[in-house]
């Protein structure tokens, strides 16, 4: 069978990225240009600045990716691009680049949902095995998804308010750590002690999540301690907060695996880089004989390799977009 090379493009938030993946599983070359250092100054991603930075970077990132792969556009079989969800101005830059390349080089254009990309980041570690349950935990999403084959996504539940990554970043702000707070809180938690009492959010039998109450509880705790003139032990607060997050994510996911009688678990999204979450899932999966795959740390957060991998299966299923493709800031995973 002829090898299929997919060029992936990702620009939904603050990373400009291109990647070439062979046959859905073999990464040939990936380039990621992160804007974190710019947005750090504002405590979060500024959409207008993000789209301008994408425009500035996009052609250089493409050139570097082709160079790294030692390939030309002629050797690419199809172009897969994140069309949504995400920041509309940021998405627009990637989508326009994809349409231009598809038109210029006469290549099929394949639209990819950002979350399916996060799921297929695991496919670059190990070919997905079905049926599986995916716990999607990122800056914008917290969802449990059941899949019995490629591109069959059944949502079991999701967050009713904040996403878990958003909650990490907001907690980071109240304890004065740089954006994004997630990875820093994770590090702090590894040396802290669980000493602060925080509520376990939406501690029920559903597959839904809620993180805004937990976020408010942390904010109130910090304000109250400050008013009393007490110092916050940041590492201890990070550990206390992370323990609650780990507890609710693992409980609901393990429950779903049991109820659906599924033996394969994958984690997806930026928060899947979290050491505390990985360690607890590893322990529980080994105890319950569940096969687990986590995305590599570098491809847990946004990148185009995951888009190219997901794009390969969308391409094989005949999914195509034409030059009228428009980005969508929100869209159901399907
Ligand atoms: O998937 P991603 O790159 O962007 C979205 O699609 O949202 O995820 C970014 C999120 C941020 O909220 C960041 O704080 C979080 O992932 N994150 C982490 C860790 N690494 C990244 N959260 C907790 N622990 C980490 N180690
Ligand atoms: Zn993402």
Structural description of this entry:
- The structure is a single chain.
- 42% of the residues lie in helices and 18% in strands.
- It folds into two domains: 5-120 and 299-316, 2-Layer Sandwich (Nucleotidyltransferase, domain 5); 129-294, Nucleotidyltransferase, domain 5 (2-Layer Sandwich).
- Helix 2 runs parallel beside helix 3 (88-105) and helix 5 crosses helix 6 (181-189).
- Strands 3-2-1-4-5 form a five-stranded mixed sheet, with helices on both faces.
- With 334 residues, it is α/β, with parallel strands linked by helices.
- The two termini are 28 Å apart.
- The chain is built from ten helices and ten strands.
- Bound molecules: 5'-O-[(R)-(carboxyoxy)(hydroxy)phosphoryl]adenosine and zinc ion (ZN).
- Zinc ion is lined by residues 114, 118, 138, 269-270, 302.
């Amino acid at each position: 069978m002829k090898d299929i090379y997919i060029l992936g493009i990702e620009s939904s938030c603050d990373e400009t990225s291109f990647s070439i993946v062979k046959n859905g599983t073999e990464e040939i070359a990936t380039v990621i240009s992160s804007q974190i250092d710019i947005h750090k100054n504002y405590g979060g991603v500024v959409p207008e600045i993000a789209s301008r930075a994408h425009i500035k970077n996009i052609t250089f990132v493409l050139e570097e990716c082709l160079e790294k792969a030692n390939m030309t556009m002629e050797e690419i079989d199809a172009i897969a691009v994140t069309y949504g969800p995400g920041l509309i101005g940021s998405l627009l830059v990637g989508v326009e680049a994809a349409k231009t390349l598809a038109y210029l080089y006469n290549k099929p254009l394949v639209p990819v949902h950002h979350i399916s990309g996060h799921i297929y980041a695991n496919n670059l570690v190990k070919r997905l095995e079905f049926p599986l349950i995916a716990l999607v935990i990122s800056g914008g999403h917290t969802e449990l998804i059941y899949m019995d084959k490629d591109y069959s996504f059944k949502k079991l539940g999701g967050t009713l308010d904040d996403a878990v990554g958003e909650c990490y970043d907001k907690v980071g702000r109240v304890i004065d750590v740089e954006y994004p707070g997630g990875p820093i809180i994770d590090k702090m938690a590894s040396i802290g002690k669980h000493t602060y009492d925080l509520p376990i959010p939406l501690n029920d039998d559903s597959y839904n999540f809620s993180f805004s109450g937990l976020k408010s509880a942390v904010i109130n705790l910090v304000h109250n301690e400050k008013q009393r003139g007490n110092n916050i032990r940041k590492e201890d607060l990070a550990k206390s907060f992370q323990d609650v997050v780990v507890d609710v994510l693992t409980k609901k996911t393990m429950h779903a695996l049991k109820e659906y009688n599924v033996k394969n678990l994958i984690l997806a999204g930026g928060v899947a880089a979290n050491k505390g979450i990985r360690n607890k899932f590893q322990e529980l999966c080994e105890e319950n004989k569940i096969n687990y795959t986590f995305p590599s740390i570098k491809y847990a957060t946004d990148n185009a390799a995951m888009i190219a991998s997901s794009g390969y299966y969308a391409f094989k299923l005949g999914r195509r977009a034409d030059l009228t493709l428009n980005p969508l800031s929100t869209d159901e995973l399907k």
